[in-house]
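Progress against Task 2.4 (sequence-to-structure conversion) is shown through the following example record, which the project officer requested during the mid-term review.
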Amino acid sequence: MSQTRILALVGSLRAGSINKQLAEAAAHTAPEGVEVGIYEGLGDIPFYNEDIDVEGRVPAAAQALRDAVGAADALVLFVPEYNGTIPAALKNAIDWASRPYGAGSIKGKPTAVVSASISPNAGKWAHGDTVKSAGVAGAAVVESAHLHFATIGQRFGEAHPREDAEALTQLAAVVTDLVAAVRESVDA
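Structure tokens generated for the chain above:
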């Protein structure tokens, strides 16, 4: 199999986001033959509106997302918890990638969900909502590739997650499970 491309979508738009740092750490763990790229620009995508989702006139930022998701072999969604649920930017990305209905770029795409929060809950509510949203949108959610990080302000407050051996091991397992899911879907 050629290069496996995993696209990371990070729900936090903040420059210093620990969720983005976790995505960077996941990219750092990618073995030879696997590329984990972090999508930039979720904040530029207009909120999904069927009135502007017209063939040939889809907003450029939304089309770029669809193209990136379509070109990826798998997705990993990094989700912080905002008011007990999924951040609007990530939900919006899932909505755009799900269209056109039944044929969106997310359809059948092996997808992992990694949640991280400052709370001891580890963003599990947002995680559950993200799994539900991605699954309803048509993604092939990989159950074995779920990961939760709690109290991230304390755990990663002084050091980047790529300096945390346990986090790297856990993120590498997510990447490995996604690659296995991609290979299974190709062999099916």
